[in-house]
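[audit] Reproducing an earlier prediction to check determinism. Same input, same settings, fresh worker. If the tokens differ from the archived copy the diff job will pick it up downstream; this log only records the rerun itself.
[audit] input (205 residues):
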Amino acid sequence: MKFSLTLLSLFLIGSIHFVNAQKADPSKEPKAGMVVTVNGKDYKISEGEKVQHDGNTISVTLANSKTFNNGTVSFDYPTSFGFEYETSFGYKNWTFDGNNFVIMYFEIAEGTVDGFVEEISGRFGKQNCKIEKTSLKLGSRELFGKRINVNLMGERLTLDLLEIKMKDGITRIIAFQDSCDEYGNATDEGKETIKMIDKSIMYKK
């Protein structure tokens, strides 16, 4: 959903400030971001927050991204993507689902990338999977992991599982699933989403 709202000749007293800001709950879907432009300068806020400014024309548009932040990793992802959160003992999973591209982020008390690859390839049927090493630079880090190439009844998809290493002993995996064309090429949605994450991802030091 995209819309643009222009507020002309808005005269309010005071400088810009944001009211009713709430601390993010990583188990809840992030609020849609709003871009407020004042005298050519952009300010990103969340839906439902109020903006006050004195004597300026303000335009407000729905941002094309939301920001995921669970305290250890943060990144932007497309506003149009769905959001799901699943948790159990020693396991957390966030899923962001687009039309052809899916982002998954896991935090696991015990487990490895290889263990995940073994389990997932078993679900697809190992005879339908080709597994290879892969790496991807996201933000300030080069992440390493495995790619599962799946060819199931003529449908092709790739699933990249990349480990985000930190010093607390928890296994963190960011995964990207893309529905490829008949030649195995990535979708435009996948390419644009990876670019967005690459530009915005931050890691807790």
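[audit] rerun output stored. Observation attached for the diff report: The chain has two helices and 16 strands.
[audit] end
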